[in-house]
Structure formats: C-alpha cells, structure tokens
Amino acid sequence: MNETDNLSNKELKALISLLEDDDTEVVNHVEGKIKSLGTHIIPYLEFEWEGSFNPTVQKRIEELVHSLQFESLKEKLQTWKDNGGEDLLEGMWLVNTYQYPDLEYADLKKQLEQIYYEAWLEFKADAHPVDQVKVLNSVIFNKLKFGANTKNFHSPGNSMMSVVLQTKKGNPISLCIIYALVAQKLKLPIYGVNLPNLFILTYKQGETQFYINAFNRGLIFTRKEIDDYVANLKLTPKDRYYEPCTNVDMVARVLRNLSIAHEKLGNTEKLEEIKSLIDILANPAAEME
Fold first, then answer.
1. Are the CB atoms for 157 and 170 separated by under 8 Å?
2. Is residue 243 a contact partner of residue 193, using CB atoms and an 8 Å limit?
3. How far apart are the first and last CA of the chain?
4. Is 104 helix (H, G, I), strand (E, B) or coil?
C-alpha cells in the first residue's frame, strides 16, 4: 500500500490548494509532502493542473511532476546499470523518457522490429560478413533513408531514439545504436566502439574484425584507418579505441552528447540533472562526441 491510499481525494485537493500560499516555508513543506507520496500522485497532479487557472500553481505542479518523474528515472537507470545494462534498447528508452516521460518502451521496440524485418527479408545468413554488412547498409541507408544529421548535429533530439526513428536523422552514436540493435537481432556480432570524437561499430568474431562508420552510410574500414585517425588526433592508441564497449558506456556517451547539446542551446537548468544521470553510469574512460 502506498501513502496515497491513506489520503482521500479531498485531502489531496486541500494539500495541492496550499501550493497557492505566498509563504515559501509552507509551499516547501507541501511540496515535500507531495514528493513523499511518490509517482502514484502524478496522474492526480496532472488532473489538478488542468483544472487550475492559477499560473503559479500550474508552474509548481509542473515542477513537482518533473521532479517525481526525474527521481523515478534515476532509480530505473541505477537498476538498469546494476543489472549489467543488458538491454541496450531499455537504456536508450530511459534516456528518452528524460525528455518524453510518457514514451512506452514497447513503442521503440515495435519500430526497431520493423527495421529488423526489412533487413531480414534481404539478409543471407551464409553470406560473407562484409556482404552481410553491405546488405544491412543498403536497407538502413538506402531503402529506409537513415542518415547523418549534419544540419543539426548538436540537437538534443539526436540523443532521443524516438526522434531519430521518426526523423531518420541522427548523430554517430544514435545511428550506431539503431544499427547495432538491428544487427544483433540478425545474430551479427556487431558492437559499439568508443572512439574519441566519433562513435563507430566493429564486426568482431574470432579472427575476423573490421569497422563500420554508421555516420557515413555504413562505410567499412580497417584497423589501419583507426591507427591513422588516432595519430591525427595526436593521441596514444588505447585498446578501447579498437574493441567493443559496454551498453552502459554507450548510454553514458549518449547522455554526454545530450549535455553538450543543452549547453550549446543555453539550457543550463538541465545540465545538473543530466550530470546526475551520467554520474549513475560513471565511467571516466568514456569519451565525448
């Protein structure tokens, strides 16, 4: 039983009406009480918001709803990490709910399954790995028209999978994640690689390993190109520039990109919140876009 079960609608209404009070101490106490009720109170708060004609009360309700949703997001992200971050799509869905809290996991899954189905129709399980990747490239970048969002590279939408699936435009890591999720469903050993300033993919199985740049329509390249890239950046080569990273690393990098996007837009109020999400997944080795 949650605490809301012990409060009647009349008592909840009376509690919310106190948000009109001019006394900051009273308002802080009421907000603390409402927050203690947990996310179960959100539908009631939204109902009260719709019935209110007081802008101050509406703003305070909006802030309360966001605060409750954000605390819930942090708990879910922590649980996802503690469970090993096994489901990459779940991690991306959680990031997505920061901006679109009503988004359902099933909605993202359904859209990805449609891309998988399109790829499966043309896929040949016995083909050479390079040819398999070329088929996937053809479906994702030619048939379905996914591509690089070069016009709005630093848009927050590039970190929101629902937006990328809708617009078919993304940044390196969002395109790589969609690509990897579809590839892995086709049983292809394709994983993310945390290269500095550019997120890429690797096909790795046994002695066979090559790389894929989803931001450049699935361009296939070798370890030598990474050597040159790292040398041009005047960096010391590290294993993580060549080898698969974890799902947790990938979602943390998405959050870093989201932080940069909001910083460039001047949305400073979001930066602390996003930083607290990054801290949950903290891995100092992960690089930014």
1. no
2. yes
3. 45
4. coil
